[in-house]
Amino acid sequence: MSVLVLQLAGPLQSWGATARFARRTTENAPTKSGVLGLLAAAQGLERDADLSQLAALRLGVRIDQPGTRIRDFHTAHHPDTGMSMPISQRYYLADAVFVAALEGPDTFIEELHQALLAPRFLPYLGRRSCPPSRPLDLGIRPSPGLEATLANEPWQASAWHQKRHRRESIVYLPVLLDTDPDTSAAAGDTVRDLPLSFDARHRRYALRTVHTTTVAVTNPHARPEHSARSVPAHDPTSLLEDL
Predict the structure, then answer these.
(1) pLDDT (average), residues 72-87
(2) What is the pTM (predicted TM-score) of this model?
(3) Distance (Å, whole) CA 43 – CA 46
């Protein structure tokens, strides 16, 4: 087993898990269906392709920079008829940065890595209007475990964000991990976010369990606190000795 590490950063991202119709929401972190969709596009898979090999990968996402949620009041006209399209509200995460790691068999992880280096279709961060602003690929790590990989990766937040936390030499980042629902450590949220088919005629998703934890990383822009001025020796009782 080995781990493929991705960096998901861009001016806008949108990771909808339950978004439907005219209100397209976003989760606070990349969904498994969104990340696997990105990899499937890199491989050049068609919408009706078998996703079982991708779905079997174990996913972990670290929130390096949470970003700001914004809303787009969306209007449009049909390009041919000129008719007004339904008004919609679309939500995005602005200036967010995530590290996503996928654990799986060595040969398949290597295939995905090569696909990321030369993607068949352009990758996007949850929605086609959200291109990445940095290289997605951070490389393959020999598997010390998904949790250890996310704990060992350097903090990928923007420099300005790291400087905001300059008084913290160590920062604690939220991590969302796939968990086996059959284990006793499966405490977590159950979400319908495991893709079974991306076929537009009949999209299907299964449930998965997500466990939330935190990891500690080093802040490269940390600045030590100004040393407190030394307090001059002061013993008022010493003046009483000669009395």
Answers:
(1) 84
(2) 0.86
(3) 9
